[in-house]
Amino acid sequence: MKHRYLPMTEADKKEMLATIGVNSIDELFSDIPESVRFKGEYNIKPAATETALMKELTKMAQKNADLKSNTSFLGAGVYDHYMPVIVDHVLSRSEFYTAYTPYQPEISQGELQAIFEFQTMICELTGMDVANSSMYDGGTALAEAAMLSAGQTRRKKVLISSAVHPESKDVVQTYAKGQYIEVIEIPHNDGVTDLEALKEMISDDIAAVIVQYPNFFGRIEPLKELEEIIHAQKSMFVVSSNPLSLGALTSPGKFGADIVAGDAQPFGIPTAFGGPHCGYFAVTNKLLRKVPGRLVGQTVDEEGRRGFVLTLQAREQHIRRDKATSNICSNQALNALAASVAMTALGKKGVKEMALANIQKSNYAKKLFKENGFELAFEGPSFNEFVVKLNKPVKEVNQKLLEKGIIGGFDLGRDFSDLKNHMLVAVTELRTKEEIDTFVKEMGEYHA
Amino acid sequence: MHKDDQALVFELSTPGRIGYSLPEMDVPETDINELIPAGYLREEEAELPEVAELDIMRHYTALSNRNHGVDSGFYPLGSCTMKYNPKINENVARFPGFAHVHPLQDESSVQGAMELMYDLQEHLIEITGMDQVTLQPAAGAHGEWTALMMVRAFHEANGELKRTKVIVPDSAHGTNPASATVAGFETITVKSDDNGLVDLEDLRRVVGEDTAALMLTNPNTLGLFEEHILEMAEIVHSAGGKLYYDGANLNAVMSKARPGDMGFDLVHLNLHKTFTGPHGGGGPGSGPVGVKADLIPFLPKPVLVKKAEKYVFDYDRPQAIGRVKPYYGNFGINVRAYTYIRTMGPDGLKAVTEYAVLNANYMMRRLQDAYDLPFDRHCKHEFVLSGKRQKKLGVRTLDIAKRLLDFGYHPPTTYFPLNVEECIMIEPTETESKETLDAFCDAMLQIAKEAEENPEIVQEAPHNTVIGRLDETLAARKPVLRYQKQ
Description:
- Chain A is of the alpha/beta class.
- Chain A folds into two domains: 71-83 and 348-446, Aspartate Aminotransferase, domain 1; 86-341, Aspartate Aminotransferase, domain 2 (3-Layer(aba) Sandwich).
- Chain A has helices at 10-20, 50-62, 86-91, 94-97, 109-126, 138-153, 166-178, 195-201, 223-231, 317-320, 333-371, 394-403, 433-443; strands spanning 71-72, 130-131, 157-161, 182-186, 188-189, 192-193, 206-213, 236-241, 259-263, 279-283, 296-300, 306-310, 385-389, 406-407, 410-411, 422-426.
- In chain A, the strands form five sheets. Chain A has a seven-stranded mixed sheet, with helices on both faces. Chain A has a three-stranded antiparallel sheet with strand order 13-16-15, with helices on one face.
- In chain A, helix 9 (223-231) links the parallel strand 7 (206-213) and strand 8.
- Chain B is an alpha/beta fold.
- Chain B has three domains: 9-65, no CATH class; 88-343, Aspartate Aminotransferase, domain 2; 349-472, Alpha-Beta Complex (Aspartate Aminotransferase, domain 1), CATH 3.90.1150.
- Chain B is 35% helix and 11% strand.
- In chain B, strand 11 and strand 12 form a beta hairpin.
- In chain B, helix 5 runs parallel beside helix 10 and helix 6 crosses helix 7 (175-182).
- The longest helix of chain B has 37 residues, at 331-367.
- The interface between A and B is large, with 206 and 206 residues.
């Protein structure tokens, strides 16, 4: 058959078969026993031409309500943010996206250096000593943090705040089962981790305490008090953090976190129906050799030129096999590149300005809701999300809002039985005053 | 600093320059100290670079020029399937209705995205011969672990708590034993025989009441088809274990043999290999898992199903292993894979495998006299050579790989699998032309000749890359993992 991705001609094929010394391609498959041989062709849709497929998939995509043609107040771990347009121009350079893991440093300096820069920027924001080259996403990064903690402390119990993203909690739970680690949930009080409960629950057999900052409800966790309680038991202090918020908030590293993990999606990465995003993983120097995944390090060549290589690989699966610190191989390198470009474009001033805009705009929305008779579930400082009580199921409200071109907030009742009819509202720097005003107006009749 | 050094973006930074255009601050502002508690407002700014837009573009363009991708040149990296990444995939993945939908939107507003996922599942079910597929795992290793967690849940549900061991061949990829460990299993290695296939006698010896599963790639990492697959399946199944297919090498057998028909109970696929999701410099990938009917209850939740012409995420899965990833997987990569499968169709996918195998066999025969060929039989989509003849001349496989850089090629995988001395593992893929294959073979033949006549030129390679061989010992002994302002 002729296909634009398959360059061999009949003449090529003939010549190649002669070199191999067989008469047909079929002979090359003679080692597949008859009994397992698949006969014929797959019963799948026929090949589509470029034009026809573009048309069909354009239509399929248009069946979705996207965040760009609608106004989104949905967050819950994935956000509609400003994406500098240059991000996609850099990502579209196929020297980056058609390469694989930089195993040959001499012809992969571009990727290696970009990741080295990513590691540096993540360290800067989180206030940590070391960051790896990326993980799948925030949820699996947190699971790796739990496993690292258990290995490091030789303890088999982990406490996780109920104000951590519920899907991340689920992922931690799944990984923990694999490692025979027990995960126990710490309740929240007024939307932040309940310190009194934590004091009751913690002891010297707890490997780690995991909190989220800002947490799933948007609240700012008391990291200072948490650190004292956690380190008093020599447990690991693990913080899941939205790195954008750290443009304005004191870094977890400054509060003494041992591991900071999360997702860099707010930096130049589209929501893409949940993935691919970009997990990150940062630790103190003490944990350097326990880090999962790839690390890029600086070195020199014979002539003293600066260069970058994958380093400390003795931690990894391809060397250490069943004794590796993690099974991760492919990571999210291209999305780490996207995040790097976005962080570079925003730079020192922009990341702060953007983080502050999230605080200001969401605070404006919060006030407006209150002025319009809404009750917030939790009072107190927050980043770009807050919880509004409604008089109707959130699903119902969201369906009404969508008719007005608004994608409403997250239905907390899905994961929190005590928060039925509670909507988690996200207001990013992209929302204009007009959009916020319209949203609150459209919500008008739903206050509890 | 050396005169040839490529500046870091931090070294381009100048206070006062910006590279962004944030939306206007159009709401009344409140004093930030009233909004954020004392001690929680960042005092020292994060040291991110301050660079204007053109200089950012030039920086990354310069970096891209120091990087080799499939679009730059031939990339026969064995076991990685570095085939062409079609451009239509990139366009489709960027459609606003795919790129800018939120995973937690009401299901009624994302039926198109769910339809694509569902249809991809259906296609992968047919391609693998399995009964159900989950798209949740983010990459191959993640899929391996997901599948092994299902194996564990299956045995536990049957009260078989003593099945704690996972068997892997000595030629297995490192993620296999690593995934087994993360899933809470102990790894047992089964030997290869003289033909490079799993030693059946050794397999019979290692299976038993404690066997949870055997993990296998077929064709294996040597590029050889495990001819005794049904016998192996019988050995493992009659011991009560499950048979797991590592889909890393599916490009070799599409339309020729399906894992489901070979006796496999679980399979993971690497959509970034066989199905052209780009490798992205190391990721993101996508590692769907397919299972036979008896394992369906254990699939991670949610499971995407179709009910009365509507696509629905089913969370009511009491026996599910849980969630393995937030949301539904690397959707953007799944969009690319779906676009590719629809582009190729059934006859196209069959041709893919046929040309992948033709190309590998052709190269193997062109190189078999100059290098040692440890397994002289038809290979599948890749083959291994041994550089042990060259090693006697003082030229290591590492040197051969570095010399190939001078010819503008990405070298093959080297020193893997571990059971072949001075291993060189070549996977050309089906998207390369005969001219490309010939030119690469000519370079390999020239290097073999150089090893005999002028070994220094190989030992001291590369000669014309932007940087020479790097001091990896220094990198590991004194780790510098981030930039620090001087």
